Amino acid sequence: MSRFATKIVAAAIVCLMAVPAMSADDTTLKVKVGDQFPDVPLAAAQIDKVKKDAKTVSIADLKGKTVVVFFYPKALTPGCTVESCGFRDLMKENKLPENVVLLGASGDTVAKQQEFIDKEKLPMPLLADTDLKLIKELGVLGKAGGTTPKRITFVVDKAGKIAKIYEKVTPKDHPQEVLEFVKTLK
User: Fold this and answer.
1) Is 80 tagged catalytic?
2) Within a domain: residue 105?
């Protein structure tokens, strides 16, 4: 009987080793308020607005400023346009505090982000996370195996830590909601 039990244990171990390691769930938020925002350098359309003569920008480049990073699923789509134009209008009206940097982000290419900027006259840089590196590190991928992020916003404080996460975003009302919060930060 003990020889039989040993064979069962050995077979179970072989089976467990044959199962591929479970991949991390990139659709489940992996950060929380108080965590350091991941320092992932990304290309961006209009990058010169935040970092001169650069190919990429990351949160470390913006230390000392409050940073709002709003993720949207796809450039030039209705909800993403409403949200982005709401942020554009706040910037046009100089409603954002002086020390706040606003960044849009999606899995779109720099060329697609630039097309979005040109069509909608967006004044903020738009990050192009085409490899989904930041999106996956944050856990904001829209669906497993997908290529678009959820609609979610992070407010990052001057030290690079997450001060607020907006997981439920209504495109029309969200820019004003973020404005009210960033006004409370010092």
Assistant:
1) yes
2) yes
> Which residue's structure tokens are 């020889």?
3
Q: At 28, list the tokens.
A: 């489940």
- DSSP character for 98? T
Determine the Cα–Cα distance for residues 20 and 41; give it in Å rounded to an integer: 30
Q: 3-state class of 21 per DSSP?
A: coil
Which residue type occupies 44?
A: A
| Spatial contact of 83 and 126, defined as CB atoms under 8 Å apart | no
Structure tokens at 186: 């010092």
pTM greater than 0.85: yes
Domain of residue 58, CATH code: 3.40.30.10
Query: Tokens standing for 129?
Result: 């996370």
Mode of pairing for the β-strands spanning 126-128 and 43-45: antiparallel
The total of structural domains in the chain comes to 1
The active-site residue out of 43, 50, 67, 80 is 80
In a domain, 45, yes or no: yes
Of 114 and 20, the one with more pLDDT: 114
41 occurs within a structural domain: yes
Q: With cut-offs at 50, 70 and 90, classify the pLDDT of residue 1.
A: low
Q: Domain for residue 5, yes or no? A: no
